[in-house]
């Protein structure tokens, strides 16, 4: 004799007995004589708990939580859940108390490993840790936590814990603001230092360029003076040859000079009659050459001194060469 059985929308039929190895889960099928068929309800159950726990700092607190728990839809989980249902009815208070014990034990263990700041300020983090702690334990019974909601933390000491946490958070906020302000001041100081260093470096390079320009000008001036001195030396070497190396020629040259005035120091100032002749003798103008001492053939000495543009002062000197 046999019976055709059909499970409800949220049920499975757990069939045991002859010709079945262990437990067989079906939605519908024939159940023969000697076999036993039990419906297994897969409807998730809402279980609320209130955890009385102590944090890592030994602070006592109460945390209400709500879970939605039900069996997973696979053969291994259904097998474990069926074994659990052999002792409990899923809708019974005994089943709820059993699940509450599992959840509270795992949640207390988690709270004891966390600091109060982490629990209060990071409820989402605590929520994720709760799931990671509880899910492995529920899997032992073929159950799964579909939702896990953490309610507002309750301080059993008239808000003393929350006030202490608020004061601590205010201190942390003030400390962060002071650190940010200090960092801003440090950055401003560093910027001012870099700006000052840049200004000093720019001023140094400017002065260095000015010094290089002055040095270049002095070098050009020295080169010009060197060229002028070489020209003066050439004039002194060439003048005796131009005068014919004779005293008569020097006298003739001196006679071409027109006496004009006598200076305070006794030197004779004269104006040459023929400036072109002087330019032929000395390619460098008399005004540029300055004083010159000439030794003529018989040992007489004469000084040609500058007396203005295009004019000379010639002073005979006594004594031999």
UniProtKB/TrEMBL annotation:
<keyword id="KW-1003">Cell membrane</keyword>
<dbReference type="InterPro" id="IPR027705">
    <property type="entry name" value="Flotillin_fam"/>
</dbReference>
<dbReference type="Pfam" id="PF01145">
    <property type="entry name" value="Band_7"/>
</dbReference>
<dbReference type="InterPro" id="IPR036013">
    <property type="entry name" value="Band_7/SPFH_dom_sf"/>
</dbReference>
<keyword id="KW-0449">Lipoprotein</keyword>
<dbReference type="GO" id="GO:0005901">
    <property type="term" value="C:caveola"/>
</dbReference>
<dbReference type="InterPro" id="IPR001107">
    <property type="entry name" value="Band_7"/>
</dbReference>
<comment type="similarity">
    <text>Belongs to the band 7/mec-2 family. Flotillin subfamily.</text>
</comment>
<keyword id="KW-0472">Membrane</keyword>
<feature type="domain" description="Band 7">
    <location>
        <begin position="8"/>
        <end position="144"/>
    </location>
</feature>
<protein>
    <recommendedName>
        <fullName>Flotillin-like</fullName>
    </recommendedName>
</protein>
């Amino acid at each position: 004799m046999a019976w055709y059985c059909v499970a409800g929308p949220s049920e499975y039929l757990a069939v045991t007995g002859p010709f079945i190895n262990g437990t067989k889960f079906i939605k519908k099928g024939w159940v023969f004589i000697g076999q036993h068929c039990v419906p297994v309800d897969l409807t998730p159950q809402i279980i609320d708990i209130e955890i009385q726990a102590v944090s890592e700092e030994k602070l006592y607190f109460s945390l209400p939580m709500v879970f939605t728990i039900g069996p997973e839809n696979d053969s291994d989980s259904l097998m474990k859940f069926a074994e659990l249902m052999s002792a409990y009815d899923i809708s019974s208070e005994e089943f709820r108390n059993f699940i509450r014990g599992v959840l509270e034990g795992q949640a207390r263990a988690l709270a004891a490993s966390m600091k109060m700041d982490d629990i209060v300020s990071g409820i989402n983090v605590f929520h994720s840790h709760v799931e990671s702690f509880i899910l492995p334990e529920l899997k032992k019974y073929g159950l799964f936590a579909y939702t896990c909601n953490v309610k507002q933390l309750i301080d059993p000491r008239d808000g003393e814990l929350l006030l202490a946490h608020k004061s601590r958070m205010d201190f942390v906020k003030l400390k962060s603001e002071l650190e940010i302000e200090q960092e801003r001041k440090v950055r401003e100081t560093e910027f001012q230092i870099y700006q000052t260093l840049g200004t000093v470096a720019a001023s140094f390079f400017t002065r260095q360029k000015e010094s290089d320009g002055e040095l270049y000008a002095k070098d050009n001036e020295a080169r010009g003076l060197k060229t002028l001195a070489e020209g003066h030396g050439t004039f002194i070497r060439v003048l005796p040859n131009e005068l014919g190396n004779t005293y008569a020629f020097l006298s003739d040259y001196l006679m071409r000079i027109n006496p004009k005035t006598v200076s305070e120091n006794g030197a004779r100032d004269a104006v040459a009659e023929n400036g072109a002749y002087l330019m032929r003798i000395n390619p460098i103008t008399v005004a540029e050459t300055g004083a010159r001492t000439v030794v003529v053939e018989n040992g007489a000495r004469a000084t040609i001194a500058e007396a203005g543009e295009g004019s000379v002062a010639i002073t005979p000197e006594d004594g031999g060469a």
